[in-house]
Structure prediction request, 161 residues.
Amino acid sequence: MSESFDGGTDGPTPASDVPDHVKRTAIDLIAAYTDRDREELDRVVPHASDDADAVMSELKVIAAFLSRRVQQTGVVWKPADSREAVARTVAEMLPPELEFAVSTAWEAHSVGEEEAAERLTQGDPMVYVHMLAAFGAAIGLAVYKRAELLSILRQVTGLAD
Prediction:
């Protein structure tokens, strides 16, 4: 994983490759962070936990799309912006120990220190899920209004609006 999350593709994986409930869960996580809605986040997290690896994979695809979109629009988005935005996005949304794990793991990840990021997550895929969902919300709001962001994500993942 790199800051741009560019896996060399032009967009998200084909809609048939990922179950719709996984796509919905990924978008619901981003929506909860976008709205700063702790109750919604608490509602969605168990669904994400059930399919943590698949949700994490879908969030990586969404992050790649949004990273490319930011580059196309010319919005300046540096690793320092990313670190601050993710920390701000998870602040008061997560229990303190998880908030710390997400923020510090994202900080290491954003500068390319994957081994340190992995150590900080202690192998918990949900730390990555929260990192990527918070990143998706933060970077998505850099180029889209909330309703537009969620609508675009539904379109690019192949979900009906």
User: Anything to note?
Assistant: Confidence is low (pLDDT under 50) at residues 1-15. Residues 52-73 form the longest helix (22 residues). The chain has one domain: 18-157.
